[in-house]
Design a protein that fits this description.
Four copies of one chain form a homotetramer. With 260 residues, chain A is α/β, with parallel strands linked by helices. Helices cover 25% and strands 28% of the residues of chain A. The first copy, chain A, has a single domain, classed as Purple Acid Phosphatase, chain A, domain 2, CATH 3.60.21. Chains A and C meet through loops of A and loops of C. Bound molecules: fe (ii) ion (FE2) (8 copies). One fe (ii) ion binds next to loops of chain D. Chains A, B, C, D: Keywords: Hydrolase, Iron, Metal-binding.
Chain lengths: 260, 260, 260, 260
C-alpha cells in the first residue's frame, strides 16, 4: 500500500495547491491513501467546516493537526462528529475530538495516530507513553499504523521514531514547516522522517509574509502575520508499506512548486 | 569559488569520518575552501586543542561553532590566539575569541560569520542587528561572505536568511543535527538552507546513543549521554559563489554514509 | 525623600483602587513621589490615553511598564510624546518611547529606569549591561536612581539587584503579580525587593478571573481571560532615600485591601 | 494541629541553621509536625543518605523535594525504602520513590503530597489532575492534607491553590527560593502561599555565591555555582489546622536570620 502524507497546508494558497496538484500526484505516485496535516488550513490558523470539507473533496482522506487546531472556535462544533479529523492524542483525556482512529481501505485497517511533542511546546501528556498505549490498542486490529508527530525538537522526534521502531509502519514529523532530508527506514522496519515540511507559499517564512516576521525579530514588538501569496510549494512524503506485516518498504520525499 | 560547509562534527566517529572522507569529497566536488561546525568535536561536547588541530590537518580551513563551544574549559586557553576557530558573534562584547574573520584564498577575501539564534536558546545579543553590523564592516573588504547560523527555530533561521538576502553569499543553518531539504537561492542571490545536518554516528539520536535519550524522555530523570558508535554519516553542503559579485550560483546538499 | 512604588495596576478595579486609596496612602506614608507599573492598566492588557491620564490625575507621577505595554496599539500614538511613561529600556534601539528619564522634584533629580528580564521572557538586550550604561549616564545628574525590573525569574532579579548594589537607590521587581517578603537594603546601600506585587482584584489569579486560568491549565486549550471583580488589593513599597547620597534608608512593603 | 513547613534548605549552612534554630522555633510556635523541602540539602544539589538522616535527627518529620532531588545519584539507593522522603508525584509512573504518603500523629492521619509545576520546568504529568486523583484517594483516610507545590510560575501556583480550595488543608509553594507575602486562607478553607522561600545563606543569590551568578548573566558562559557562606536565613510558614475538618485556621510566615 502506498500512502501519501502531506506537510502542514497553509491557508488559501495551500488549499489551492492541493486542489490543483493532488490528483496528478496521487496518480503519478500510485497513492492509495492520503493524510494531510491541516492545522494551518484556514487563514494559516486552525480549521473551519468549509475549508476542511473542501480538502476532503480534493482527495485528502484524513486530516491530522497540531497546536493550531484550536485557533478557530468553530472547530469545537464539528471535531467530535467528524472522524476524519485527528488532533494530538496526548491532550488531556476529555479533550474534544480524537487523537487516533482506524480507517478501512480495501480490507486493510490503517491506524492513524496524531501526537504532539512537549519540548518547547504545550504541557501535554507524555507522547512516548501515549504512543505505546495507543499502538498496543491498535495492534490487534491494524497491521498498518502511521503516526504524525507534530513537534519542534529534532531530539524528541527522532527519539520517538526510534522508540517505536518495529511497532509502527512510519513515524512522520510535522510542525517546523521545513522538510528534512533524513528520511530512512529504521532497522526494525519503521519508516521515519523528522519533518515532511509545509504546503504553502514559497516566498514566505513558514507560509506567512516575510516582512512582519523579520520585523518581529528585529523589534520584539507584536506583529500581525498574514499568509503570503505567490508561488506555492507542495511538501510531502510517499510511504510504501507491505500489507502483510505493516513494515515500511520505502519512504520518498516529494517537493513540488506550483504557480497559479 | 566552491565552498564546502560541514554539519556539526560529533566526537571521535565524526572526526574519523572527516579524516577518511574529506580528501575525496573535496576532490569530487572541486572544493576550494572548507568550513566545519566543530562545537561537538571532543566527545560530543566542546573542543580541545588536540582534536581541533587534527581537524585542521584533515583539511578543514575554518571551524565554526555554537552553544557547546564552551563545554571543555581548555577552549579558553587557545580561542583567542587561534583565528581559525569562530564562536557565535552575538555573545556579549568582551567574550573570548572572535565571531567573524576574513580569510584569504587566491587573492579573494572570504568573510566568515558565526551567529547563534535566541529562540529556545541562550539570551545573547540580537543576531539580526549583529549580522547587519558585521556585514557592513566586512563588505568593504569581502565580496564573499558566509554565515553559519547556529539556531533551533526554523522561523528565526529563515527570517535571518531572508533579512540578509543580497547582503551575504550564503546563510547556512546548524545546531539541530538534522539536515533539511529546503536549500535554495533567494531572489537577491543569497544561498540558504535551514540546517546542513550532522557528521557523526548514523545509528544514534543526533550523534549520541539512543537508549539514554529515549529513557530521558520517558522518565524525565537525568541521563548520561555518550557519543554513539557504528556507521557514520557525513552531512554538508557545497556552495558555488561567483567571485566577481559574491552571489551564490549553486547550493547542493551532500550526504554520505561511511563504514569503518 | 519618600518614594512610593506601586505593583502592576490591573484594569478598571486596579484603577479605581488607586483613585480611592492613593491620596490617603500618600498622606499616611508621607510620600513625595509616586511610581506605578501600568502595563495592565487598560482591561488588563496595555495602556490607552484615557486610562493613563486618569492614573496621572489620581496622583501617580511616573508610569513604568513591561511586556504588556504594547498590547493596545494606541500606545504608539502617544508613547513618544508622554515623558511620564517608561517602557523597558532594553528593547532594541529605535523602539518607540523611552526606557529611562530624569524627573525633578524640589530641586532633586530622580532618575527612573525600567528594564525587562530575559529569562522565560522576550529576547531583549542584556538588562545588566543596559543598566550599567544608563546608570553611568544618569549618575552625573542624579543622586537618586530607581529601577523597576520587570522580570520573571527570582535569580535574574536578585542578580541584577546585587550587581547594581551601590549604584542605584533601589531595584524593585514587578511582573509576577505576587509580592515577595524579601525587601532589604544591600550592604552598599541599595534597596531591593524581588516583586512588589499587583494592585487589582483580590479574588483572582494574578488579577484575572480564576476559572478560565484553571481551565487553561487543565485542558491546555485557549481560554479568554477577563479582569476579575470584587475586592481589590493594593500592593506597593515605600522607599526612603537619603537625598544627600541617594542611599536607601528604608524599604517597607504595603498591602491594603479595598472594598467598593 | 500546628504544622511547620520549611523552604528549600540549601547546603551545609542551611542544615546548620535547622540544627541550631529548629528546636526553639518548634517550641516558640508550638509545632506538632515539621515538613521541609530538601532538594538542595547536599551541597545545594540533591540529597545523600548522611545529610538527610541528619535533617531527620534535627527534628524534621518529612522531606519534600523538587527538580533537584535526582542530582546526587545516591538518592536511587534509598528513596524507595525511606518513606519520609517525597519526590514530585507527577513524575511518570514507575519513577523511584513516592510522591505522597500518609503520616500518623497522635491518632490523626496527615496526607502529604509533593508536586512539580510544568510551566518553565520539566515535562511531567499534569499536576492539576494528579492532585485531584491523589486527594480523592487520601480523603477517605485523612482529614488533613498538605501539598508542597514546587513550581516556578505564580500563575500555575495560584491556579493550583484555587483549584484545590476546599479539598486540601494547605497548598504551599516552593522552588523560587524567595518568600512571598501573599499568605491567605481561600474561601473554602484552604491555606495558601505562593512560595515559602529558602533556608540558606542570606548573602547570596538563592543560596549560592553571587559573583558566578552575576557573571553568568553578563557573559552567558558556563559558571560553577557554590553554596555561599555567612549569615543564614530561615524561611518557612506555620499552618494551623482544625483537626475536626482539616480546614486551615491560620497561616503565618516565619523569617529568621542566624549568625554562627
Ligand atoms: Fe503548522
Ligand atoms: Fe504546529
Ligand atoms: Fe551541535
Ligand atoms: Fe548546538
Ligand atoms: Fe503585569
Ligand atoms: Fe508583565
Ligand atoms: Fe530549591
Ligand atoms: Fe527547585
Amino acid at each position: 500500500m502506498r500512502i501519501l502524507m502531506i506537510g502542514d497546508i497553509v491557508g488559501n494558497p495551500g488549499r489551492k495547491c492541493i486542489r490543483d496538484l493532488l490528483p496528478k500526484i496521487k496518480e503519478n505516485y500510485n497513492i492509495d491513501f492520503t493524510i494531510a496535516n491541516c492545522e494551518n488550513l484556514a487563514g494559516g490558523k486552525g480549521i473551519n467546516k468549509k475549508v476542511i470539507n473542501n480538502i476532503f473533496t480534493y482527495g485528502v482522506d484524513v486530516a491530522t493537526s497540531g497546536n493550531h487546531i484550536w485557533d478557530k472556535k468553530e472547530i469545537f462544533d464539528f471535531i467530535d462528529s467528524e472522524t476524519r479529523i485527528l488532533r494530538p492524542a496526548n491532550y488531556p483525556v476529555k479533550t474534544p475530538g480524537r487523537g487516533y482512529h482506524i480507517f478501512e481501505l480495501n480490507g486493510n485497517n490503517i491506524g492513524i495516530i496524531n501526537l504532539s511533542g512537549r519540548v518547547f511546546m504545550s504541557d501535554l501528556d507524555c507522547p512516548f507513553q501515549k504512543a505505546s498505549t495507543i499502538i498496543e490498542e491498535l495492534r490487534s486490529q491494524c497491521k498498518i499504523i502511521l503516526l504524525d508527530f507534530h513537534a519542534e525538537a529534532t531530539s524528541e522526534k527522532m527519539a520517538l521514531g526510534r522508540y517505536l521502531d518495529g511497532k509502527a509502519s512510519a513515524i512522520v514529523g510535522t510542525h517546523t514547516h521545513v522538510q528534512t532530508s533524513d528520511e530512512r527506514i529504521f532497522e526494525n522496519g519503521t519508516g521515519y522522517i523528522t519533518d515532511i515540511g509545509m504546503t504553502g507559499p514559497y516566498e514566505s517564512i513558514l507560509g506567512v509574509e516575510s516582512e512582519p516576521v523579520i520585523n518581529n525579530f528585529l523589534t520584539q514588538l507584536p506583529e500581525r502575520f498574514e499568509v503570503a501569496s505567490g508561488k506555492v510549494q507542495f511538501n510531502g512524503v510517499v510511504i510504501e508499506i507491505e500489507e502483510a506485516d505493516g513494515k515500511c518498504k520505502d519512504i520518498e520525499r516529494i517537493q513540488d512548486l506550483h504557480e497559479f
